TrEMBL record:
<feature type="transmembrane region" description="Helical">
    <location>
        <begin position="442"/>
        <end position="461"/>
    </location>
</feature>
<dbReference type="InterPro" id="IPR003594">
    <property type="entry name" value="HATPase_dom"/>
</dbReference>
<dbReference type="GO" id="GO:0016020">
    <property type="term" value="C:membrane"/>
</dbReference>
<dbReference type="GO" id="GO:0046983">
    <property type="term" value="F:protein dimerization activity"/>
</dbReference>
<dbReference type="InterPro" id="IPR011990">
    <property type="entry name" value="TPR-like_helical_dom_sf"/>
</dbReference>
<dbReference type="InterPro" id="IPR011712">
    <property type="entry name" value="Sig_transdc_His_kin_sub3_dim/P"/>
</dbReference>
<keyword id="KW-0808">Transferase</keyword>
<dbReference type="InterPro" id="IPR019734">
    <property type="entry name" value="TPR_rpt"/>
</dbReference>
<protein>
    <recommendedName>
        <fullName>Histidine kinase domain-containing protein</fullName>
    </recommendedName>
</protein>
<dbReference type="InterPro" id="IPR005467">
    <property type="entry name" value="His_kinase_dom"/>
</dbReference>
<keyword id="KW-0418">Kinase</keyword>
<keyword id="KW-0902">Two-component regulatory system</keyword>
<feature type="signal peptide">
    <location>
        <begin position="1"/>
        <end position="22"/>
    </location>
</feature>
<feature type="domain" description="Histidine kinase">
    <location>
        <begin position="497"/>
        <end position="679"/>
    </location>
</feature>
<keyword id="KW-1133">Transmembrane helix</keyword>
<keyword id="KW-0732">Signal</keyword>
<dbReference type="Pfam" id="PF02518">
    <property type="entry name" value="HATPase_c"/>
</dbReference>
Amino acid sequence: MMRIYKYLLICLSFAFVLQSVSQSTPIDSLKYSIDETKDVAGQVSLFIKVAEQYKSESLDSSLHYLHQALVLSETNQLNNSPDIVSKLLGVYSSKNNFVEIQSLGEHYFVKISKEKFPLAKLLIADELAYAYIATGKIDSFKQYSEYVISNADIDKEKEKTVFVSALRKRASYFISESKYDLAILDLQKAIQYLDTVDYFQSYSVYVTLADAYKQFGDYNQGIKYFELAKNYAEKYDSYRVKIHLLYSYADFHLHFQEYEKSLKYALEGYDLVLNNPDPYGEVVYSSILSKLYLNLGEPSKSEDYIQVVLTKAPEFQSDEIVAIAQYDLGSIALLRGDFAKALELCQKAWKFFEPTVSLFHKVKVCECLAEANEHLGNFAQSLIFLKKVSIFKDSINSEDQIKRTYQLKSEFEIEKELAIYEAEQEKQKIIAAQKLETKNSLFIGIAILSFLLVGIFFLILRNRQTKKEGRYLAEKEQAQTQFSQELIESQELERKRISRELHDSVGQDLILLKTKAVLEEKYEFENLIASALQNVRTITQGLHPFILEKFGLTAALNKLVTSVDESTDLFVSKEVEDIDGLLDKKQELNLYRIVQEALNNVIKHSGSPSLLILVKNNKTMVEVKIQDYGKGFDQAEKAMLMNSLGMKTLKERANILKTQLVISSVLGQGTIIQLKIPL
């Protein structure tokens, strides 16, 4: 009987062990392996694996095991500390813990060698750039984003991914500064690598493009890029991406005053951050919900969310979010007639926004301060802030004109770049197919060497096919050239239209306002209006040279060179012979644009003390020579220059003139640009 009991006990124990093993998780198995492993390097590797497993379940647990890995690695002087730090910063980034990112990242960025750990140093720099832009420390952000962009090797897949991430972050910064042309250029570069980077970076690039078109006011283009971003977000399937996409949707619809749609996305995202939980996400969503309820006429609900922002935002050094919340509370106090409280809150907000370039928020805060001071009897103070409102609104109107110009330019450039990129991708596929087919042909030729006649027949067939494909490529290239030239013509027409509208509407209105200011002896406004009028004339002339239509190409070129001579420190020498009537109108405009762009490049980049412009009529051709005596460039820089977007446009214009752009340069001696246009 005792033997039977022992047997049963053994069976039950064995069954319990089997059940425990069957219920153990991969994390439990890894933890068990840590205890069993005696090798320190093996333990560090296992700690990292446990941390990776915990990333989707518990960020705090992931941080715990990564810290253990880092301590063990540092104590035993292993060489994988930089990689562990880059993973730690990634987790802190998911938690929006910018203080830890800055502290830990700065220490190891200085400590580690770029030569020994290039990827880890790039990843650390990229996370530091994210932390600094999120906390408004722009100079530090620029330092680290430029490090990534300058040092990443795009021939290495992982470094290419960090490079795209840095470009996308810098584009977001440019958008916030209204530098849309620079943002679009960065996004164009990023788009070229989207097929080879991870889903998260592809999502980030497209959602940033959507944000750019939101700022342009182009609703349809914004929705288009949001759909592309949504596709990658679904493939990536991450909490962080979900809350970012929902917030971006909410902010997009809020911008276009679609408050109900915006509220739907904002509440969905808010529920998500509360369930995780995510304190920083709660701050960001509370900020947008407060704005929505204020616009929907529910100030009490708005006030509840503002209190969440004011309570939790300081933890993340989010001073701008706090300042916006203080202004929103001030606005609610105005609605309720509590003018003293409104003044107190808006003064706090003004302390933050006064030194910034955020004109929109400056206008709002100054309006609040003006109204509160007026009701409290502080009329002098109220008048000061009303004057500031007027000045800031004038600046916003000027920015809107510039923004529209940027929009037209950027839309043209990005569509052209995408078309070139797609054509290049198609060309590369055809070349790859040709190489594969050639390899197969050689293999077949060797295999059927004994059947010489059959082999010759096969080669003849392949030759015909290659010629056919060559013709197809030539036709495609011709179609691409025609497309580029049509885009240039379309751009010129749009520039001309905008220029006329600025001249006929805004220009005339400013002249009337200036006359009125003179009659009413408001000389301060007269000077402001005169300055604005001159800016409109400068923009109008830059968009379309009406002097070219009225007085001809020779006069237009002389005027262009004279304006450079008068507006810069360059010593300008010129010899412009009469070439009127030698070229048709389209050719004249394109030659003018080439000279204009070349002169702009000399002013911006050459550092030259002087400039020589020659335009000669040699009976059979028109010769143009533009020479500076600046810093010049070497062959490597020339290769980069010839592949730039601006140079591609110049080459297309030269094609319209049935000639080629010849550029020669010697480092330290200057650059010569020459054109020979046949008549």
